[in-house]
Design a protein that fits this description.
This protein is α/β, with parallel strands linked by helices and 466 residues long. The chain contains 14 helices and 18 strands. The strands form three sheets. Strands 11, 12, 13, 14, 15, 16, 17 and 18 form an eight-stranded mixed sheet that branches. A six-stranded mixed sheet has the order 5-9-8-7-4-6, covered by helices on one side. Strands 2-3-1-10 form a four-stranded antiparallel sheet, covered by helices on one side. Keywords: Methyltransferase, RNA-binding, S-adenosyl-L-methionine, Transferase.
Length: 466
């Protein structure tokens, strides 16, 4: 079913990942042929969007079925007003085991005829288009010389970042995303006086059909990958608790934690980049959540070791005394190699491997800040062993007070072989591995099977501090 090239990686990164997926433990368990097949399927599926769009419903504001009904009305209204024709009404399904998730099946790849008039967008913009977005003007890199508003164009993604902004054509490595109608003249898009804003091309025949959520029920429907929603439930926040989200931007998981607590308690969100703190606060405001306190702070320095038990537990802001929090979420900065769709990664191997030391610094701070009897959840959106199972093995060896805990819900696969963990330990981990079922990705599968398997690559570990 592949209409894209596989994800484009630097040769050194490709070899590194191949060694991960052909490690000795895994080869002994599944054999060379199956291990090779999994790796090749991974490279293919990463370039495609997941089979469902996942919406986290704000069930702290309204019942799930009420939100589902309103969302159907809004998306069907949007579809009737759009230029696409012959589409059936939007189908929205509640997830059978996660009470605040709605799923919208994604249709594609569809047979779309390429046109002679071509617009080229950046890779990040291209990934958003594959998940239902229109093309916003800042993402456009090249367009025909005389393109006018109303022209029908084919949209392509620049896979290697080599297209010069303002170009009139581009023949480099690219991928076809579908057809759309220009909403702006070329002169408006590449205006030298001020940056262009708004929709540059409205997609009418996307390769993957998925509704656009721009401005749709912003307080009730939050777009979030399914594994990212699972993380909040695994953390298991309770009303009245004090919870820390260590690397919180843009705030999706932070807001989910507050919603699961019924907005009763305190959720402290930290991020070291100031403008990202504004995004967290905006999301909290949009979702009508008041228990979130966001601070611009480096979480590796979030422990005030000089402050002993005599210090007040609720320090106004970071750094905090040890054992200040009932639960800690460490959704760690990572190489992001599980994100989908992702048609090209231009990072070097040095960059890919640079995250493990930072993750360990953050983990040390997390353990110190967690109360005895508290829960720590560690997660990433990558597929490497070094950032996932190897970090768990290191943590269990470094912090004897930590024990792995069962996860609820557990809808992903178990942990991956290769880090020396026992079968029992691997069963307690949750790894979302789309490559395990990718060869059946275009076969009809009943929910929740397909939605649970055809996700981004993601990893979750849950610890109890004894």
């Amino acid at each position: 079913m592949s209409v894209f090239p596989r994800i484009s990686l630097k040769p050194e990164v490709n070899d590194y990942l191949k060694n991960v997926f052909l490690n000795k433990e895994l080869l002994a368990a599944v054999g060379l042929q199956e291990a090779e097949s999994r790796f090749q399927r991974l490279l293919t599926c990463l370039a495609h969007p997941p089979g469902h769009t996942c919406v986290r419903a704000s069930t702290h504001l309204a019942p799930l079925m009420e939100i589902r009904h309103k969302l159907e009305e809004e998306l069907n209204k949007q579809q009737m007003c759009g230029a696409s024709t012959g589409e059936v009404s939007v189908k929205i399904l509640p997830h059978p085991s996660i009470p605040d998730v709605l799923l919208l099946p994604v249709t594609g790849p569809r047979p779309v005829q390429q046109l002679s008039s071509e617009v080229v967008v950046g890779a990040q913009c291209g990934s958003a288009v594959l998940r239902g977005a229109h093309v916003f003007a800042p993402g456009i890199m090249a367009s025909p010389k005389f393109m006018k508003s109303g022209d029908v164009v084919s949209v392509f993604s620049d896979l290697e970042g080599k297209c010069t902004r303002g170009a009139k054509s581009f023949q480099g490595k690219r991928a076809f995303l579908g057809n759309g109608v220009a909403e702006m003249d070329r002169s408006s898009i590449f205006c030298p006086d001020e940056p262009a804003k708004g929709i540059g091309v409205r997609m009418v025949e996307p390769l993957y059909q998925s509704p656009s959520f721009d401005g749709v029920l912003p307080s009730l429907a939050f777009l979030q990958n399914l594994p990212s929603v699972v993380v909040g439930h695994v953390l298991g926040p309770c009303p009245g608790e004090r919870i820390l989200d260590m690397c919180a931007a843009p705030g999706g998981k932070t807001c989910h934690i507050a919603a699961l607590m019924g907005d009763q308690g305190e959720v402290v969100a930290l991020d070291r980049i100031r403008n990202k703190i504004d995004r967290i606060r905006q999301n909290a405001q949009t979702l009508h959540l008041h228990s979130i306190k966001a601070y611009c702070f480096n979480s590796t320095q979030a422990v005030n070791s000089s402050c002993v038990s005599l210090c007040p537990v609720h320090t106004a802001g970071p750094p905090f005394p040890p054992e200040s929090f009932d639960r800690v979420l460490l959704d760690a900065p990572c190489s992001g190699l599980g994100q989908r769709p992702n048609m090209a990664v231009t990072w070097s191997l040095k960059e890919i491997c640079s995250y493990q030391p930072l993750q360990r610094k953050l983990f040390r701070a997390a353990v110190q800040l967690l109360k005895k009897g508290g829960v720590l959840v560690y997660s990433t959106c990558t597929v490497t062993l070094a950032e996932n199972e190897e970090q768990v093995a290191w943590a269990l060896d470094t912090f004897p007070q930590l024990t792995l805990q069962p996860q609820d819900p557990h809808i992903g696969a178990e942990g991956m072989l290769g880090a020396g963990l026992s079968p029992e330990q691997l069963r307690l981990l949750q790894r979302f591995s789309p490559e395990l079922s990718w060869d059946q990705a275009d076969m009809p599968t009943a929910l929740p099977g397909k939605a649970n398997r055809d996700t981004i690559g993601f990893f979750i570990a849950k610890f109890l501090k004894n």
